[in-house]
Amino acid sequence: MLSLRLKMATILFDKIIYGPVHSRRLGLSLGINLSPADGKRCTFDCIYCECGLNAERKTHSAAPSREDVSKALINSLEQGVKPDVITFSGNGEPTMHPHFAEIIDDVISIRNTRCKHAKIAVISNSTMLHKPLIISALCKVDDNLMKFDAGSDKLMRLIDSPLSNDFTVEQLITDLCRFDGRLTVQTMFLHGEHNGVSVDNTGDADVEQYIAALHRIRPYKVMLYTINRETPVKTIYKTSAETLNAIAAKVSAAGFEVVVSG
Fewest CB atoms within 10 Å of the CB: 79, 126, 137, 151? Predict the structure, then answer.
């Protein structure tokens, strides 16, 4: 059973292991939440985050230990769960966990002995890629789904709201290039306004800038999606299927494999 804590129309996962759930991007996914169960821990404060805004989700407990993660995963698999993929996601940014690299090694070992068919995926906001241990760990998993929502600092800050004032799109692109193409870029397209400022990454010029960044990053796949759940900011809206497909056509014409999830 999927265990959720509902609050203000957004969700928190209150267990280390959640699901399996049918992911629109990955198939039958067994989730691993490396954030505390009572709140959110993230280096971004995205206006569309299904877990809510950081200020509304302050945590007062520690992240799960490496040992607890292994025990929880083994217990779930012993219950007969057979996922297509074991996915690191949850209440925030998984790579922030102080023992992320070691946990990756543990999960690979458990997968290899208990569910060899399953892939291991990490859904990340791409902000910790400057750390060699993080990149090294991520390169061991089957699928890295890395967030890249905009090709300009202005749009990136409006949509993703990085906590660090020094974080830039140029840094993000440079760090994504560390994968040498062995990654999937996932991008949220939306429109609306926030605090009286227009937010829209679907315009022609913005898409051109985005595609130029993709040429530098060289991902083997690009996943385009739009809002599918409640968002903490109520003045942003789902991109139409027509617009999303038009963007996908441009990305495909630029030479990238594209998956669209409306």
Answer: 79
* Alpha carbon distances (Å) from 182 to 6, 24, 104: 35, 21, 17
Q: Name all contacts of 166-171 with Cβ < 8 Å and 24+ positions apart.
A: 167/43, 167/127, 169/213, 171/130
**Two tokens at 232?**
């903490």
Q: Are strands 27-33 and 17-23 parallel, antiparallel or unpaired?
A: antiparallel
Structural contact between residues 11 and 200, judged by C-beta atoms closer than 8 angstroms: no
pTM over 0.85: yes
Residue 24, pLDDT score = 65
Please determine, for residue 225, whether its predicted confidence score (pLDDT) is greater than 90: yes
Q: Largest Cα–Cα distance of the chain, in whole Å?
A: 53
Question: How many other CB atoms sit within 10 Å of the CB of residue 163?
Answer: 12
User: Which residue from 214, 140, 211 is spatially nearest to 184, judged by alpha carbons?
Assistant: 214
Structure tokens at 94: 């998984």
